[in-house]
Amino acid sequence: MPDWETYAPAAGVLLAALVAGYVVHRILRSVARRARERRDRLAARVVHVIAPPASIALPLVLLVAASAAVPLPGTWAALLQRTAGIGLMLCLTWLGVRTVGAIERRILLEHPVDVADNLAARRVQTQTRVLGRIAQGIVALLGVSAVLMGFPAVRQLGTTLLASAGVLGLVAGIAAKPVFGNLIAGLQIALSQPIRLDDVVIVEGEWGRVEEITSAYVVVRIWDERRLIVPLQWFIEHPFQNWTRRSAELLGAAHLWLDYRTPMDAVRAELSRICQTDARWDGRVCVAQIVEADRTTVQLRMLVSARNSGDLFDLRCAVRERMIDFLLAHHPEALPRMRADIVRGVAAVDALEVRAGAAGRRDRADAAETGSPGAEAADGERSAAPAPSRLAQ
What sign results for the dihedral spanned by CA atoms 122, 127, 133, 139? Predict the structure, then answer.
């Protein structure tokens, strides 16, 4: 039969610990609500970070403190203390992770990217996100390691691994190469910043924006709403294009194939008018040049500039469309066309016959003038060749 006189105090201590945890949780929620009402955001965030771990840690502390005063069997007391110790360590780890996350969110809120000039904000956000994820991972790893080392079997395994660190260390290093490679790549990206959040990049031939940087991979949002998942290490080991490394301003060209009779002065004047009336032009570059020519047409390049890649693409399309409309309305002779000489009637037939006769005489003359004087002919052919004196006559 259970000894209720012995177990009743233990049950009372456990119930008191649960009640204390609930009371602490309610008090902390009340403090957070009052802080929000007073618009004290810092106090509200601090209470929000502390409340969940504290509501669990305080009952565990009460259990550890009261376990010595409760007449429990030795194994039960040891088990209760060990369980409470593991719980406290996990609560402390949880608090550390939440603290790092709160600091990260605070920095992100102080540096918003939804502004016109967000280069510095994107730099800070990239470093904060990457370093915050790494710090959270380190805190969690240390906490879990401390919990596991509290078990004798795991401690003995750790001692064995350290004793045979040669081969096992090599195997573990090879197995964990992708993990540590991405970790080191994350640190390099956070410090050197070849990419930042909201950067416009060309990766594997795809145009997109950096949407998210985690501790293992980068999410690139492609222009057609697809998502390209790229490991962090890839950005360290492979070349790629970053269109917003220093600034978002870009140059772009719109090309047209036109006729040789294109009036370039009118084209330049119209291009200037198009740029000045378009809000997407940033006022830096607006140039029209002929950059190529073939047998029938010339290539017109209209070079323009914009504040960012999105405005530049739309501006190039607008310049191309409006220039075509201008040429159709005012200079249709500038549009490319096919040319051919067309002759008709008897005069045309006579002209063709005259040309054919002249071509035949020219072919015969060419044969006589350019033929070999028998040097390459066979013996019989050489003897049958006319003498030079007869050719001269």
Answer: negative
Please tell me the distance from the alpha carbon of residue 101 to that of residue 316, in angstroms, as a whole number. 43
State the DSSP code for 332. G
Distance separating alpha carbons of residues 91 and 78, to the nearest angstrom: 20
Say which CATH topology domain 250-334 has.
Alpha-Beta Plaits (3.30.70)
- Can you give the pLDDT at residue 53? 82
- Name the pLDDT band for 373 (thresholds 50, 70, 90): low
The rounded distance, in Å, linking the Cα atoms of 134 and 214 is 9
Radius of gyration of the chain (CA): 42
Q: Where are the domains of the chain?
A: 1-110, 120-244, 250-334
In this prediction, residue 1 carries a pLDDT of 43
Report the length, in residues, of the chain.
Answer: 393
Tell me: pLDDT of 356 over 90. no
Decide if pLDDT at 310 tops 70. yes
Distance of alpha carbon 210 from alpha carbon 228, whole angstroms: 9
191-202 pLDDT tens trace: 778 888 888 899
Smallest CA-to-CA distance from 64 within 37, 88, 35 is with 88
Global pTM? 0.53
Alpha carbon 352 to its chain centroid, in Å, reads 66
Burial class (CB in 10 A: 0-12, 13-18, 19+), 49: buried
Place of tokens 């290490």: 233
SS3 256: strand
Q: Look-up: residue for tokens 């017109």?
A: 300
Question: Which CATH code fits 120-244?
Answer: 2.30.30.60
pLDDT at 26: 76
